[in-house]
Amino acid sequence: MKITEGMLRAARLDVSLYEEVEADRSLTRQATAVVLLSAVAAGIGAAMHGPRIAVTVVAAVVLWYLWAFLTYLIGTRVLPEPQTKADFGQLLRTIGFASSPGVIRILGIIPGLVRPAFAVAHIWMLVAMVVAVHQALDYTSSWRAAGVVLVGWLIQALLLDALLRGAFF
């Protein structure tokens, strides 16, 4: 599968794409590339308003791993369904592809579009992540998948806030 095809299918919330990505370990590199492309787009789109591209890319990769790990723990240990069987790699790949809509953040370079582009991208990526988690964890309930995504997002946001405030130093 070409990465552009996978990204378009992921952005269209194509359930079969997330099933393919979950099952194919060879797509981990592509998932990493999707995260990097999305992060670079965010860095370029926010260049006049935020951190440098390198900081954005590094943060995106770290947060991707963190969110995948939190989702794995929450989804398989705290809120599993009876048929839930997944490994960390499955969540890493599906969540990586769920960041595909983030490439629209590059539109932030257009004056007045940084906030709308980032808002649309973040909502779209959250919806894509619910689809990704639903498939990777073999859930029957989209609500459960949404709950896992939101709990993971909240924990990640709190950890990031604490880190930025220097609570760990």
Can you walk me through this structure?
By secondary structure, the chain is mostly helical. The protein has one domain (3-164). The chain is 70% helix and 0% strand. The chain contains seven helices and no strands. Helix 3 (28-45) packs across helix 4 (53-78), helix 3 runs parallel beside helix 5 (88-98) and helix 4 crosses helix 5 (88-98).
Features:
169 residues, mainly alpha, 0% strand, globular
Topology:
Layout (H helix, E strand, L loop, with lengths): L2 H9 L3 H9 L4 H18 L7 H26 L9 H11 L15 H23 L5 H23 L5
Helix pairs in contact: 2-5, 2-6, 3-4, 3-5, 4-5, 4-7, 5-6, 6-7
User: Main beta sheet: strand number and arrangement?
Assistant: none
Structural class: mainly alpha
Low-confidence stretches: none
Indicate the radius of gyration in whole angstroms.
15 Å
Tally of alpha and pi helices: 7
SS elements, strand count: 0
* Helix proportion range: over 70%
Q: How would you spell out the order of helices and strands? A: HHHHHHH
Shape: globular
* N- and C-termini, Cα separation: 44 Å
Oligomer status: single chain
Mean pLDDT: 92
User: Strand percentage, roughly?
Assistant: under 5%
What is the total number of structural domains?
1
